[in-house]
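During the no-cost extension, the postdoctoral fellow (Dr. R.K.) reprocessed legacy sequence entries with the updated structure-token encoder. One reprocessed record is reproduced below for audit purposes.
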Amino acid sequence: MFDTLIESPFLWIVLTGTFFLGAAQLQKKWATPLFNPLLFSIVGIIVLLLLTNIPYETYQSGGQLIGMFVTPATVALAIKLEKNFIYLKKYYGAILTGIISGVVLHTVMIIGLGILFSFDEQMAATLFPKSITTAIAVGVSESLGGIVSLTVAVVVFTGIIGSVIAPTLFRIMKIHDPVAQGVALGSSAHAMGTAKAIELGDVQGAMSGLSIVVTGIVVVTLAPLAEPLIHLIFG
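Re-encoded structure tokens follow.
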């Protein structure tokens, strides 16, 4: 009976939802990054699996059903973009410049960290796509010879950190423009950053959703150029 319950995908769907919704309620009461729903859910599930010695594959029987909704949820962000298309027409130059600058700066940062910590070629390739959405990052990592599973972990970590610290950084740096906030979140923290952008406002959410797509396109375009560069520096 117990084994049948553990093997049920619906158990893990319910538990994941419980962790997420519970953290959302706690965050409303105590506004702390520790109760970020996504972070809380991930840590909660990991701790639960470790304490009960349940294999990840067992959890994934239900977890993969949740993952199926990532793509349609991302596409649905276009609804907010359509409603705020006027901002794209008005600021398209600044938006594209911001996104491309972010990708270039990110690449320079990876190279700098790689040199500082003596990365090998595989590790540099693994980290290169860390700021784009998982579906695209996996393909880029594979094409460059990176460690795909580690790339996925780094992408998730990047998204969590970006969504958690962004409001504080905006306040410290006095970034109040909704377009700038949206572009910053989408181009650095992908889907998780977009979830935070939607909380900040419709314009932020629309610009962040746009930035996810454009950032992915730019990174994929630069990947063939990045491969020989990575080989030259870290090979």
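The radius of gyration is 19 Å. The chain has two domains: 2-68, 74-234. The remaining legacy entries will be reprocessed before the final report is submitted.
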